[in-house]
Write a structure and sequence with these properties.
It is found in: Cytoplasm; Cell membrane. The chain contains 9 helices and 9 strands. The chain is an alpha/beta fold. The protein has 2 domains: 166 residues, Rossmann fold (3-Layer(aba) Sandwich), CATH 3.40.50; 104 residues, 2-Layer Sandwich (GMP Synthetase, Chain A, domain 3). The longest helix has 18 residues. The structure holds guanosine-5'-triphosphate. Guanosine-5'-triphosphate (GTP) binds next to α1.
Length: 299
Amino acid sequence: METDNYRCGYVAIVGRPNVGKSTLLNHLLAQKISITSRKPQTTRHRLLGIKTEEHAQIVYVDTPGLHQDKHTAMNRYLNRTALGSLDGVDLVVWLVEALAWTEEDAHVLNVLENMNIPVILGVNKVDKIADKALLLPFLETITQKRDFLAVFPLSALRSINLDELEKQIVAELPLSPPLFPADQITDRSERFFVAEIIREKLIRRLGAELPYRLSVQIEYFTQEEKHIHISAIIWVEREGQKAIVIGKQGHVLKKVGEEARKDIELMIEQKVFLQLWVKVKQGWHDDDRALRQLGYTDE
Ligand SMILES: Nc1nc2c(ncn2[C@@H]2O[C@H](COP(=O)(O)OP(=O)(O)OP(=O)(O)O)[C@@H](O)[C@H]2O)c(=O)[nH]1
């Protein structure tokens, strides 16, 4: 490994919900496990996905959407986390969607205005734009809004321009030896990822209907003789949501359980016995104390 010109630093990918942050991180890391995460964490950086290369180590920090709606405790929390997680970050990759500027993007712009961190702009989902000539005026308008280190039209999904983006990211990182061992892709515990895998499967099956309205708590995680026994509670807000998560004759929960178990077994390389329970915690979404009990805390 070259040490003299080695670069290493923290990079945050920010942007409004649904703009493609997870997809981008996924493709940049080429490591699925590192990025299925959505759950806020107690450490300063909500999530670490680490990419170690010959000349550089990029430590990615994913942030929750910078939400405009400050009404619920959860959204207040997410706002704090989003800002908090930019603290100490060397570089921001801000994603917007090609030809789809919204109020939420304006809100992110506003948040970034108040931070003294260099920003690379990624204009995502260009694969959706049939007439590429339309991109130019869009790029022009957006680049007038602030200074960017660089601007990249991208498709996170189809891996268009991602190598170029990565090169630029590396070029902007400080000269520093690697901060993490080369084989470490994440600093999160297995429990954390188990919860995230279950959450991901739920979201995949249920669509965007329940964005922040469910939470997965690992009740226990025990090594038995021949397998690991995991019991997880899926907390929802209302009876109606419980019925959705369980599905007709338990169909949804069964599928989620099967899919999650397979991924967990791949991750921890052991047989897993997984039990899922769905419980209703009324109003937890708007209750700071309940949030803390579920591990959503930034203290
Ligand atoms: N056509 C197209 N779709 C994309 C692209 N990138 C992401 N998507 C889709 O956009 C949707 C949202 O992508 P995510 O990666 O979950 O977006 P996100 O920004 O992480 O979303 P939040 O977690 O809600 O903040 C998914 O359906 C992706 O498949 C892209 O480059 N092109």
